Amino acid sequence: MKTIIAPLLLLAVSPLMGGGLDRADERERFRDNPPPGAQPGVLGMAACCATSLEKRQEATRSQPDRATLKPGQFRQYVENFNRNDRETVVNHVPNAAALDWMAKNIPWFECPDAEIEEIYYFRWWTYRKKQYFDALRTYTRSHRRKLPDGTVVPWIDESLNPDTGVWISTGDNPPRGKDYNHSTYCDLIISGLVGLRPRADDVLEVNPLVPEGTWDYFRLDRVRYHGRTVTILYDRTGERYGQGKGLRVYADGRCIAQRDSLQRVTGKLP
After folding, report:
1. Domain annotation covers residue 257
2. Do 213 and 259 have their domain in common?
3. Using one digit for the tens of pLDDT, what is the confidence trace for 185-232?
4. Mean of the pLDDT values across residues 121-127?
5. Largest Cα–Cα distance in the chain?
6. 145: domain range?
7. Cβ distance 250 to 231 under 8 Å?
8. Residue 118 burial (CB < 10 Å; 0-12/13-18/19+)?
9. Exposure of 222 by Cβ count < 10 A (0-12 exposed, 13-18 middle, 19+ buried)?
């Protein structure tokens, strides 16, 4: 079975782990002759993660209880982020609840590089439910261009001016970046906002990042996932879709999970 939806976070480690190269030899060569600017970068992250993975695999073969990371392992980061933030604006998930929210909702990560580890958790700490929604709306509003006649049309180009929000290359002839679709916008909606979280097993997990009280309804339909057709819908009043109030998840037309509020649900695929 194959999952067709990619996770939001993608770590490109194939240059070090693929192509028939011996990992130990490749890491040694990388350590002795690192490419310019490789630390801390994608190759540096790949090297430390590959090393960390092998160490954890070796340790967990004799100690199975260490196979799963624990939230306490990143508690120090969250407490430090909270301590250094004045929280002049209290978001949907306040700082005091950040650790609990992260423990329930994010992929846990560790590696030998403390800076990479810290920034990984800082990014998640920053983009809690409300922040994710607001950031996505800001990003969505950038997908527009005002034509010379004043008409505003959907648009995506190569880069935006960070001060004005205007697409930089629209005056090029021929156009340099028109339809430069480098974003994973649809995945930000499917896996992030609606919350269909890819998994390798036959459990369908949905964890929406739509803050409570923001939308009265949404529906994601006809998603092919693990050989099934999935529908995810939320109806605050139950009047929009006539299936009852709250969040409901269907696989091949059968309801496999439901909840009255916008919270994480799981269900067994039929």
Report:
1. yes
2. yes
3. 888 899 989 999 999 999 999 999 898 888 999 999 999 999 999 999
4. 86
5. 70
6. 130-171
7. yes
8. middle
9. exposed
